[in-house]
Amino acid sequence: MTPDQSLLDLSDTLFSVSVALYSVALVAFCAELAFGRSRAARRELVAAGNGPAVDVSADAPADGAPRRAERLGVLGLGLTVLAALAHAGVLLFRGLAVDRLPWANMYEFATAVVLVAVVVYLVLAVRSPAVRHIGVFVLAPVVLGMVGIGLFLYVEGGPLIAALRSSWLAIHVSAAIIGFGIFLVSGIASVLYLIRQKDEQKPAEERGSGFVSRLPDSSVLDRLAHRTAVFGFPIWTFAVIAGAIWAESAWGRFWGWDPKETWSFIAWVVYAGYLHARTTAGWRGRPAAWVNVVGLAVMIFNLTFVNLVSSGLHSYADVG
Prior knowledge:
Structural class: mainly alpha
Radius of gyration: 22 Å
Mean pLDDT: 85
Strand content: under 5%
Low-confidence stretches: 40-63, 316-320
Number of helices: 10
């Protein structure tokens, strides 16, 4: 069928709208960090005689600043919701325009992965308000990723090529998108955990008073990274298995050590190692977090280098 150009144009417009909204939300989250109290300052409230509790920290914000920061954080969260809706519209209208699932090339695949990461963050931020304070560190790579996707991966919408006309596209690729998006949030949480935990180990007088002090406690970040990885791991496992079944149907073999297959399996091994490390004495904490960061690096390498530089059976689709 001939793609509906008006719907494709609407999808492209919504892509620009979502990038703009994410950017404004990022600014709001940055302002929240700038004007908000550090976690230590919020705890340094003492009773002054019989009067009301007052903040005695040296870096206490000016009157009204904490409330203003709170409003900015809520604004950032609201804008992120609006951006996610526009982001979902990018895929929805592109799919309607070409009458197929909208993740048959790298542009669509990467766009969907970023959307999953944003949705995961929003769900976590609603369930646990402390998580909202990592919004700037989630949206910064989201904005950079969306800009990069729009500049370097964009392709015109069109029908599926013959090799992708299979029900496994909905099963295998959908699972890969969801797993990747969840691991993206997990990896960011581990990076922030490493930064926060290093700061918490310093004597109180040597700890940072900037953005690090406004992050959730390291225990919260560690728990967030672990729980999201636990959730994403079986989905990624299913994606790898579904890909092998599709490969047998399409190419007559379950596994051929194609670069995409190989690096997907390497990512699976790294995340299995992370989950095991979390339960192993001597590997909990920073060592396990580093394994999770390596897992995220492998996933990004698999999406970018393996798709764009290496050659293999998956190269025709730029997805995997």
